[in-house]
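User:
Hi there, any thoughts?
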Amino acid sequence: MLSWKVRKMTKSEFLGLLRSELTQNKISDADDVLDEYEQHFAFKLADGFSEEEIAARLGDPVRLARQFGFERENEDHEVGKVMTVIGLGFADLAAGLFFLLPAVWIVAMAGLTAACLVLAVCLIINLNPGALIPAMPTISSLIFGIGMAALGMLVGAGTVYFAAFFRQMIRAFGRFHRNTMAVAKGEAVLPALALYPGFKPRFKRGLRRLTMISLLAVVVFFIVGMIISMIHSGALEFWHAWGWFGYTG
């Protein structure tokens, strides 16, 4: 019979053996443990690893299951647990301050996305509420409006990715927090989570395609809009010719 070190296992074989051992060891949260390892497989598969490579990196599922059923004497770890709790308290405080900045940035990006799309609609339909938009011919307004819509989609795609990255950072820190306490208690640890988000391949391709198309549309429509505006106004500095800043040539 092949030993663990030379035996290759697929995802279903690994999880099946892990489930069997967890059940045999009467682990109460076996479903949660299996769900975490299944997510780990999903993320690593999306990164291009094979099922056999992922299983080999995780180790022997029999040994992993036994770790979850292993409990050490609490007296031997009381001091370690207290120090761990104190250390994690400082880590949580620092992490909270650190996570505040990207959270604000995500809100700002979402606001910019909404502002770009609203401005795009106003330019396309030639709507100027409160005379907030500089005056320009209809053709320029339409072209700049399409470019602004593309900019909104570009920023929106960035917002989605950054929000997913932010969520994954929080999940990874939560896993670090959980595993640190598990070590202090003498319990088994779950696999560490990657910092970058694991999108499904189809969604990842769609997000990348949207980003590239939006970026190209922004460049093309704004350049075309400027050229048409220069021709229509008869001046390179068309914004001055149309009195955008209180000056007319």
About this structure: The two ends are 89 Å apart (CA to CA). Residues 1-6, 71-76 have pLDDT under 50 and may be disordered. The CA atoms of residues 20 and 206 lie 38 Å apart.
